[in-house]
Amino acid sequence: MNLIIQGHHLEVTPALRDYVGGKLERIRRHFDHVIEADVLLSVDKLQHKAEVTLRVRGNSMHAEAIDGDMYAAIDNLIDKLDRQVLRHKDRVKNHAREPLKHQAMQSQQ
Predict the structure, then answer these.
(1) pLDDT score for 33
(2) Count of other CB atoms within 10 angstroms of residue 74
(3) Looking at the predicted structure, is the pLDDT value of residue 104 above 60?
(4) CATH of 2-108, one of 3.30.160.100, 2.30.42.10, 3.40.50.10770, 3.90.226.10
């Protein structure tokens, strides 16, 4: 997985880079077909914003979170992204099984 971390009005420190990388490991545990993760961390006045675009085979997912603390924003972001990845994984798994059900119904008729 390619991991790109960028900062907007913010210096991306090694601690932030390690924190984001560690949190994205949770995503990789649930779904290992991740091609690229593009993370943008930004600060506007007192709002810390974290955004990620996750590219998987055949799809792209985007999530963003805003909080008063950058680490809390990253945590919220990963929670949102984790739900999206699990839903995508379930759709892919169910879609693969669906044609078999359809064929079985046709053969019974």
Answers:
(1) 83
(2) 23
(3) no
(4) 3.30.160.100
